[in-house]
Design brief:
Pfam families: DctQ. GO terms for molecular function: transmembrane transporter activity. Residues 26-154 form the Tripartite ATP-independent periplasmic transporters DctQ component domain. It is found in: Cell inner membrane. This protein is mostly helical. It has one domain. 74% of the residues lie in helices and 0% in strands. The chain is built from seven helices and no strands. It has helices spanning 2-39, 47-62, 64-69, 85-119, 133-136, 138-167, 171-174. Helix 1 packs antiparallel against helix 2 and helix 2 (47-62) packs parallel to helix 6.
Length: 179
């Protein structure tokens, strides 16, 4: 499992850094567009659409798996600490398997939409025409990696739980299987 985990970590870091570059390009493009608009009376054509339809989509979806891995997502744990260990384990599986199915559907539909835009040679309508598949592609890539990450986390926990059952050890003593 260790090589798989290291592979996921490298992919996560790469996509996260790509998202960070997207934020930098957004900042630069918006600043130059505003400066051109107010000082030169000549904004950058298509800057708003490019930021809205391409960069923001990439930034959000490329960082999803890294956010899950680093446990930086929003979580409600008000009563969870008081639950018995078995109930915590049940909630762990529910809280991971339901999003796994949900995000799998999103990744699949994102791929279908990307493929249709690619095959249909779709472009945006506006001052600058951009190919729409370049906007859609970030959804199946980012969410697909998230699905693999959640699946890996669940599989890792299943293995830990099976080992604990074989050894008769409580998995609370061994730690959780989050990556």
């Amino acid at each position: 499992m260790r090589p798989i985990k290291l592979g996921f970590d490298k992919i996560d870091k790469f996509l996260y850094r790509l998202g960070l570059w997207g934020i930098f390009v957004m900042m630069l493009l918006i600043t130059l567009d505003a400066a051109g608009r107010y000082f030169l009376r000549d904004p950058i054509d298509g800057a708003f659409e490019f930021v809205q339809d391409y960069l923001m989509v990439a930034v959000v979806f490329l960082s999803m798996s890294y956010t899950y891995k680093t446990d930086s997502h929003i979580r409600l744990e008000l009563f969870a600490r008081k639950f018995p260990e078995r109930l915590k384990r049940v909630f762990f599986y529910i809280n991971n398997l339901l999003p796994l199915v949900f995000f799998f559907i999103i990744a699949r539909e994102g791929w279908v939409k990307t493929w249709e835009a690619w095959v249909g040679n779709e472009f945006t309508i506006g001052v600058v025409s951009w190919p729409t598949y370049l906007s859609y592609i970030w959804i199946p890539v980012g969410v697909g990696i998230l699905v693999l990450r959640i699946g890996f986390t669940v599989a890792e926990q299943v293995i830990m739980d099976i080992d604990c059952l074989r050894q008769g050890v409580n998995s609370q003593d061994e730690g959780r299987g989050s990556s």
